[in-house]
Structures are given as structure tokens and as C-alpha cells.
Task: structure prediction
Amino acid sequence: MVKDGYHHGDLANALIEAALAVVESDGADALSLRDLAASLGVSRAAPYRHFVDRDALLAAVAARGFDALSEIYLAADAGPGDGPARVREAMRHYMAFAWSRSGLHRLMFESELLRRDPIPPVLAGPYQRTYEALWRTLSRAYPDAEEAWLKRRRVTMLSTVVGFLVLDEAGRFTPEWARPLSREDLVEAILDVATGTARP
Amino acid sequence: MVKDGYHHGDLANALIEAALAVVESDGADALSLRDLAASLGVSRAAPYRHFVDRDALLAAVAARGFDALSEIYLAADAGPGDGPARVREAMRHYMAFAWSRSGLHRLMFESELLRRDPIPPVLAGPYQRTYEALWRTLSRAYPDAEEAWLKRRRVTMLSTVVGFLVLDEAGRFTPEWARPLSREDLVEAILDVATGTARP
DNA sequence: TCTCCAATGTTGTCGGCGCTTACATTGCAT
DNA sequence: ATGCAATGTAAGCGCCGACAACATTGGAGA
Result:
């Protein structure tokens, strides 16, 4: 398969990667299939040969996001330290991921994609792998814990971190709002609460 | 001021309220100024006499949301029980608000409106009142606490609750994901963590 | 090697949208 | 009574997602 002037060669992947760049820099709302096609040098109808509609392309982009996140979790799981330290490290890396690719993170966590019934097939696998990786790290960190305790921890941990990221991305944590706490203070406080090591 | 067939009479308010209904039922993305104008029986250019653009109308809608939320916080502050119990009650009512008006909640917390610099003036007042009400409840509940401790608690508390709501609204907490925990178990676990009464 | 088909890309078109400009109507202050 | 500012209308621009009809190509099977 080679670009021959008429057929692009690998338009599907090129579309996903170009869309990924747009989503990361300007957010999913800013994605225009027409602009995308133009930037890749194809006609505006070409994308529809590979994605039934705009949302299908966004779902594929979100899938790449979950791929990246699952690798982050896997890397944290292989890192040094005892179990609880690795959980904390996983959350720290997750926050770094969300900050460095905030448009993508918003697409993954705030879009309607995951609310669909059924969940878009391209998303199901990466999504499941992501949470299996996190679940493994968590359950190994607390091998003696009951399942209910672990599940509770998983929900509260993710809620705390995601909430912090959402509020932060929404511009909520200005310096004057937090003073006298620094940004690092906030991050550590969040990690303390998320991982259950909060000081009262 | 009366509807005379040509002039509407109170188009600005009518637009906000109609938009509020759309946002609550179908989300902010579904709002079309043209549809809105048609449903109110005015021309499609009429809304622009009252709101410079679509975002300005959404900002006004979000402002109504913060008005409603600040009243909820005020009511919780006047409720029975000791301070910490009132904080917990405030968070419980906040969650009920977000669930019953989820489209509005998403607009308030996930839109770009608050990230603007400067924050839209119509939003500034209601937003500030909302967090002043919550801050009062919180600081009265722990009168001996240092400011840094209270600020930390405010950030972690809101993060946990907002994160739970965002993930829930994104369809993340399916029964099989949470099993064996019930929905009420999740809510109580979130309130425990948010208010700092988590059991390990 | 030739042929035909499925995959892929193009052009043309439609309806909907946000927004702007130029014009019409009305109430109110002077 | 009048003139102006506020408010509403009509028409149109450019952009968008999406669809239909047509064009091009590589490769499988004769």
C-alpha cells in the first residue's frame, strides 16, 4: 500500500493521528473533519470511507488515549517501591498524563462516548485493559484486603484524582483560591486522600 | 413592558429559561440559538440583541446554576446537626443537585466558561457566592482548624465529589464495575472520603 | 496476462448552524 | 408631539457534517 496520488495509503491512521493532535492542542470541539481532510491533502468526503461519522473518529482517538494510559499504569506497576507506593506513583503519573494531554483527557473522561450503549467497540478493549492494569496494581498493593474494600478504594481514588483534574482544567484552583497552599501542596493532599493516607 | 406582537417583552429572561431547559434535558451541545428563537416565536437574529454570542447565553445559564447551588449550600448550612454533619449534608445535596440537573452541572463544571480570563462577569458573582456559602459551612464546622487545613479539605472534598459525579455521568460506575457494592455504598464511601471520615 | 470487483477517493449537493448587516417597529424621554 | 435608543426582522455569508453519484486503483481469480 503506497501513496499513489489518488489513494492515500494509510488514511485511517493518518486521520487518527492528525485528530489526536487537534484534540490535544485545541480540544475535541475544535475538530473539523473538513479541515482534517484538507490538512492531509484528501477530499472532504474521504474520511467517511474510514469513519462513519465524526464521533467514530473521536472514539478512535479516545481509544489511543486509553492505550497510552494503560501503558502508564503498566509502567507504574513495574516500578520500584512497595505496593501502596506504586499505587501512589500510578496516580501521580496519571495526573502528569492528564496535564500534558489535557484535551485528550477531557475527551476520554467528559465526552459522551462512554455513556453510549453499547460502548463503541473500538473503545471497549483499550478501556478494559486500562482498568485491568490499575486493578492489578491496586489489588497487589493490598493482598489481604477484601474485594469490597478494594472496589471502594478504586472508586474513591479515581473520583478524587479525576475531580481534581476536572476542576483544575476548569480553572478552579487559582493561587488565591488555594493560598497559603502551593500547587504541590494540593497535589500531595490529593494523593494522600486518593490513596488513603490522608492526615487529618 | 408587554408583548405587543413585535417586541417580545422579556426576551432575555425567556431565552435563559428556555436554554436552561434544553441544557438540562439534552446538554449544552444540543443548544441551537435558531431553535431557541423559533420556539419563542422570534426571529433568529433576535437573541443577539441580548447576548453577544452563544457562549454569553450559556454563561447566563451557568450563572443560574450557581445561583441554585448557592441556595442549596445555604439551606444545608441552616440545617440541623453539628458542623461536620452539615458539611456532609451539603455534599449530599450537591450530589442530588448534580444528578437531577446533570446537563446543567456539566455546563457549570466541565465547560470552558470558567477558564476564561477574565471570568465572564455574569458568572463571577454567583460563582463567588456559591463558594463563600460552602466555605462558611466548612470553616464553622471546624472552628479550631488552621486555614491551610481548611483549604486542603476544601480542595480534596470538592475534588472527590466532583470526580465521582463526572465519572458517574460519564457512565463509569456500572453495577458490574462496582459489585458487590451498591450505589448507596458508593455514595457513602465518597461522602466518607470527602468529609474525612473514611474508614480504612 | 486480462478482467472485473471491492476498496478507496472525488465532486456536487443539502440542510443546519453561528453570526453580521441593513432595515423596521416601538416605547419613552424630552 | 417628536426623535432617539432599544428591540425585533429579513437576508445572506461562510462553515460544518453528511449523503449520493461517480472516478480511480490494486489485486484476486480466470
